[in-house]
Structure formats: structure tokens, C-alpha cells
Amino acid sequence: MVAIIKTGHSLHKVFYYNENKVKEHVAECIGAGNYPIDVDKMGPTVKLNRFLKQLELNENVKRNSVHISINFDPSENYSKEKLMAVADSYMEKIGFSQQPYLVYQHHDSGHPHIHLVSINVQRDGTRIDMQNIGKNRSEPARKEIEESFGLVKAQGNKNSLDFQIKPITSGKIQYGRSESKKAITNVLGQILSSYKYTSLPQLNAVLKQYNVLADRGNEDSTMFKAKGLMYRILDENGKPIGVPIKASLFYNKPTLKFLEEKFASNTTNQVSDRRRVKNAIDMAFFKAQISLTELVQLLEKEGINTVFRKNAEGLLYGITYVDHTTKCVFNGSTLGKQYSAKAIQERCTSINQEEQKMPNLVTEKLHEIKFETPKSEIVAALFGDDFRDNKYLGSSTIMGQLAEMLTQAEQTSNYLPYELKNKKKKRRGQSNNR
């Protein structure tokens, strides 16, 4: 089970988003909490007015709508009764048991999920504090409900596709505004609130993993100057395709202004989060001689995507790391100079260059080496003094392996067969019959 909570300024938009799904026959309102009559006896006006009457008790609360999605594993096809039981239990555990709320079951996605619509103004006019509700209330509630209802657990479940964002591919989307909007909404709904990004390029580093781009247009364009923003779908080559959609047309308004607020509030300075990425990079270089492509593949095994930024001439000028485990995004330079695009390129190139030099160096220098020569002197003779006692002596490198082989030769050069070792030199005068 995965729960996502969003607050907003417009209850009408959240409400009609779900009601329109009902009209399109891709959702149904399966229940309600703290309403005077059954949900199947209420029309849209009655449902909405219940919220609006309570909001009038405190008109100073501007961010008053609460929109929650509860997502289940694809294997979990529960009855409406069980979905309502889960919804009621969840609302109680996060402190919304006395609030009016509506529960919608949606059928427009690849996994079962329900949407809950509510407000954060209470019956006495006070406001429910939403600060850190995800960490402090929603997460403990999720874990308790997974146990009590026997649900598939989200945490640590590597086989559950429900808890991973499915990539958008051109073959699965019928390009046109409605289909494109639905696909982009699915990605934005899971990326914007869960990942920690501090700039538009960092956000796009994540979105591009799912073939989506947040586009401001060229710097000379009217849209850029007016601080506009559009979302686009990318094809398999990373090129925009289909109809771009204005940010303001999405129900949660992921506009540039909204994103700039997220940039300011997101924190990616956690030492442990940075250390995880840095350690993964260092281990990739420690294990083997690698190219940029091989580095990308090794980091992907650790759940880290590497996004390269290139100029019009195709030259690499920036690198961004997207850690899907900690949901953090880092520019290479912010991790340290040795993790920047230039340094990473040089680290890969230097290793490859040394590999290419080695065959000729070995041919030229091998005859100068004696078996009793220390390992460090062997490497210095082969590759120059710059390589004496440095990282290239590691046993995982070709140079290190060669040095080991030659050092082993030193150890075996004085080898004597077992039979000869056991034969002692006879003393003079000793007889064979003694």
C-alpha cells in the first residue's frame, strides 16, 4: 500500500476531478464519511455543499482541500467493502475520522487505487495541522493497515510493480491531449511530491527517466519571459512528441511558481544521502577499469540513474545523479569536485589510456625486471615513477595483477622439487648399510 497526500487551494477542482472521472465511467464514488445520507442517494451538489458549509467556519484557511490517493499492488483486487474499511481506518489513524470525506474507486490505471477527498477545517472551525503529516501520521498508519488488513507491503517489496513508477513509452500512449495528459498526470503525481530536487534541470533529470519533460521554451520565447511552463512526452530518443500541455491545465497546478516553492523547500543536504551516491561511484571505480557507459550500468544496479548534460556540439558539461532509493537528486559538482562531469570523464579516460599503453610498456620494460625486484619497483619500471605505490597497484587492475604475477615469480624462482628437498648430503665415511 502506498498513500500520497496533497493539499490545495481549490476544493472545487479536486472534487470535480473525481466527479468527472465518474462521468467518464472510469471511477465510482463507493462511500463517504460523516455525511448525513448514503452516498448513492446524493448528487454532486449535496456532496460538495457538505464541504463548503464546514469551510465557512474558517475562511482564513486558504489551503483547505485534502486529496489522498491510496494505491495497492496489482495483485490486490479487493471488494468495495474492504476498500472502504481501509479508507475509514486510514482516515482515523491520520486524524480525519471526524472530517467529511468522499471515497472514489478509480479504474483508469494499471493498479487498483482509491482517492479520498476531504478538508482540513474541523467542526469547531480550527485547522488540522498538515505539517509533516506524511512522515508523522501517514507512514505509521500505512504500516499498521498493511499488517491488520493483510495487504502487500510497500517497504522492501522489490517484486511489486505497484510501488514503482511505470515508464511511459511511445508505444503505449495514443498521442492526443487527453491520453497525454493522463500519462503525464500519473508521473507528476508520484514524482513532484516524493523526490527532492532544487532546480528545473534536476526535476527534469527525474522526469526524463519516465519520458516526460517540463519545458520553459527558449529563453527568447514569450512563454519563457512570462514564466510559463509546459509538460511534454518524450520518445525513446528523448525527443519531444505529441501535444505539449500547459502546466495550468493540470488539476494540481504544477506551474513554475509551484515548482519554485518546491525548490526552496526541498532539502538535499543530508550527509547520508550524499554519502550513498559518492560511495556507489567510488566503488564502481574501485572494482574495475570502466568507461562512462559501464559506470552508468554499475550505478543503475545501485538504483542510481546518471543523466549527462551536453551542449549543442555534443560536449559533456554537466552530470546529475538521481538516487531512486533516497529520492534525492544531486548535481555532480555539489557532491565534490571529483564527482563532476569533467572529473568523471578524466577518471574513466585515464584508466582506459593506461590500459592502452600497457602492452607496449610491458614489451619495452620486461627484460629489465629481475624476480627479486620488489612489487613497487616492478610497477615503477613498467609504468614510470608516477605509478609507484598508487591506486593502480590495486589487485583489481591489470597493472596490479601483472605486478602480482611477477612478485609470485620471485617467490617461486628458488623452488626445489620435493624429492630434492628431502635428500641430505651424505657425510664422508658414511656407509649405506648403517
What's the helical proportion of residues? Answer: 40-55%
Total number of distinct structural domains: 4
Please report the total strand number as a whole number. Answer: 11
Fraction in beta strands: 15-25%
Which CATH architecture of the largest domain? 2-Layer Sandwich
Strand arrangement, major sheet: 1-3-5-4-2
CATH topology of the largest domain: BirA Bifunctional Protein, domain 2
Q: Which descriptor suits the 3D outline?
A: globular
CATH class of the largest domain: Alpha Beta
Which series of helices and strands comes N to C?
EHEHEHEEHHHEHEEHHHEEEHHHHH
The helix count comes to: 15
| Biggest pleated sheet | 5 strands, antiparallel
Low-confidence stretches: 158-178, 354-367, 391-398, 406-421
**Rg, nearest Å:** 32 Å
- Spatial separation of the terminal alpha carbons: 89 Å
Task: Determine the structural class based on helices, strands and strand pairing.
Answer: alpha+beta
Task: Look at the structure and give the mean pLDDT.
Answer: 79
